[in-house]
C-alpha cells in the first residue's frame, strides 16, 4: 500500500533521527534524509535510538535539497513549520504526500519556506516554542495515515 512519506531537512540530533527510523519501520512509511546532517551517519546515538529497526526501515538519502526535490516529482511536498497558517488537522492529505520537517535548531531557511504554497503547523499553546522533532513528526504522520486510511492492516503484504 502506498503511504505518505517523511523527509528530514538536514537533521542535527542523532537520537531524533534514530527514533524516526524506528517510527518509519513500525508504520511502513519511507523516511527521506536530506544531507548534510549535523552528525556522522554511524553515530552511536543514532544507532542506539533506532535499536534494531535500521534494516527494517526504508531510508532514502539525498545529497542536498535540490536533489530531494527533483526525486519527488509528481509528489506533494508539505513543509511543517510553527509559522505555518494551516493546522495539521485541517489539511487534507493524500498517499502521495511527503511530510517535510526542518532542522531542530532553526527549522527551514526562509527561501525554502517561501517556495511552498502550503505550510502546515501543529497548533500549540501560546508561549510554547516548539515540539521535539520526533514528536512533531509522529503527530503529523499519524494524522496523515488516519486521513488516508493507510495504517497497516492485518494480512497486508508489505
Short recap of the structure:
By secondary structure, the protein is of the alpha/beta class.
Tell me what the structure shows:
- The protein is an alpha/beta fold.
- The protein has a single domain, classed as Alpha/beta knot (3-Layer(aba) Sandwich).
- 30% of the residues lie in helices and 17% in strands.
- It is built from 5 helices and 7 strands.
- The strands form 2 sheets. The protein has a 5-stranded parallel β-sheet with strand order 3-2-1-6-4. It has a two-stranded parallel sheet with strand order 5-7.
- Strand 2, helix 2 and strand 3 form a beta-alpha-beta unit.
- Helix 1 runs parallel beside helix 5.
- The longest helix is centred in the last third of the chain and has 15 residues.
- The N and C termini lie close together (8 Å).
Which helices and strands occur, and which strands form pairs?
Layout (H helix, E strand, L loop, with lengths): L4 E5 L4 H14 L3 E4 L9 H6 L9 E4 L2 H7 L4 E5 L5 E2 L9 E5 L8 H5 L5 E2 L11 H15 L11
Amino acid at each position: 500500500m502506498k503511504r505518505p512519506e517523511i523527509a528530514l531537512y538536514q537533521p542535527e540530533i542523532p537520537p531524533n533521527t534514530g527514533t524516526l527510523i524506528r517510527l518509519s519501520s513500525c508504520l511502513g512509511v519511507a523516511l527521506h534524509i536530506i544531507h548534510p546532517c549535523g552528525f556522522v551517519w554511524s553515530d552511536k546515538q543514532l544507532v542506539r535510538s533506532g535499536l534494531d529497526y535500521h534494516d527494517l526501515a526504508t531510508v532514502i538519502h539525498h545529497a542536498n535539497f535540490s536533489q530531494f526535490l527533483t526525486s519527488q516529482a509528481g509528489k506533494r511536498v508539505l513543509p511543517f513549520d510553527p509559522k505555518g497558517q494551516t493546522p495539521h488537522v485541517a489539511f487534507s492529505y493524500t498517499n502521495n504526500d511527503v511530510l517535510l520537517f526542518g532542522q531542530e535548531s532553526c527549522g527551514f531557511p526562509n527561501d525554502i519556506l517561501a517556495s511552498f504554497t502550503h505550510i502546515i503547523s501543529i497548533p500549540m499553546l501560546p508561549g510554547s516554542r516548539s515540539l521535539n522533532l520526533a514528536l512533531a513528526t509522529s503527530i503529523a504522520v499519524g494524522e496523515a495515515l488516519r486521513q488516508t486510511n493507510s495504517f497497516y492492516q492485518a494480512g497486508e503484504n508489505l
